[in-house]
Design a protein that fits this description.
Layout: H1 2-14, H2 20-43, H3 50-65, H4 71-79, H5 86-106
Length: 107
């Protein structure tokens, strides 16, 4: 999944027009954002504030990837407030992959 996003993202950056590669990138990006939101929401504990959940995810991303990421970045990604850097998306998606694997083993 991450490789598919990476290829699509590279195609997006190499094309300045609204071509099929750009549309593919947007589609892959939105698919990844949807996966993130689904995993985020399923891991959020009842009673947790969104602020606390964003901080928890930020900390977990750091543990999984050893990459520094801010709580505001997690929040912006969740709410689609801005286009994140490629490395940020890759770190977030590594966390998503990790959570999906962990959750599937727990079932």
């Amino acid at each position: 999944m991450i490789q598919r996003y990476a290829i699509a993202q590279r195609l997006h950056h190499s094309s300045s027009s609204e071509s099929s590669s750009s549309q593919l990138s947007d589609s892959a990006f939105e698919e990844n954002r949807s996966r993130f939101k689904r995993v985020f929401n399923s891991n959020k504990e009842v009673g947790d504030t969104m602020d606390y959940a964003f901080e928890t995810v930020r900390r977990e991303i750091r543990e999984v990837t050893e990459e520094k990421i801010g709580k505001g970045t997690v929040k912006s990604f969740y709410y689609s407030e801005e286009d994140p850097k490629f490395n940020t998306v890759m770190s977030i998606m590594r966390w998503v992959d990790n959570k999906e694997i962990t959750n599937s083993l727990a079932e």
